[in-house]
Amino acid sequence: MEFSNLIKGRYSVRKFSAAPVEKEKLNAILEAGRVAPTAHNSQPQRILVIEDRAALDKLPDCTPCHFNAPLALLVCTDNSACWRREDGKLSGEIDAAIVCTHMMLEAANLGLGCTWVMMFDPEKMREAYNIPENIVPVTFLPIGYPAENARPSRLHGDRKSSDETIVYNQF
Length: 171
What we know:
The protein is of the alpha+beta class. Helix content is 33%, strand content 15%. The protein has 7 helices and 4 strands. The chain has a 4-stranded antiparallel sheet, sandwiched between helices. Helix 2 (23-34) runs antiparallel to helix 5 (92-109). The radius of gyration is 17 Å and the shape is globular. The relative contact order is 0.23.
């Protein structure tokens, strides 16, 4: 698919069919995340693949936004592995966001739907999936084939104009 069509047509899927995601598609999505750029190429992302029924059944205790997807990826950062800017800011959450974006676009490219979710309880995720202390859950992606009645949100096409979001040379 042409890239501009892909990014303009992608939307947050909140209704999934029960069809499983094929292993080769999951691997392609994970590879897109693996090769995503990170600050100083530190690659602090740690991605938890949540795909078996027992693991998926834990999601409702952690978030209302699991959407009964047949697959979810919990994108985390290892704070002990990320780059630190001179003022002390860690790159991990930004790196995780970049990784997540690459995986969302690859999912769309493969005909899958997903949505970016930050509405979850990190401590409940940590407990449910036995996440070590140095690993910080940042976001997760429910992924699967869109249900027949899946549609973009009414807000999907509501984008600000470039005049409102782009500034040249100085504020």
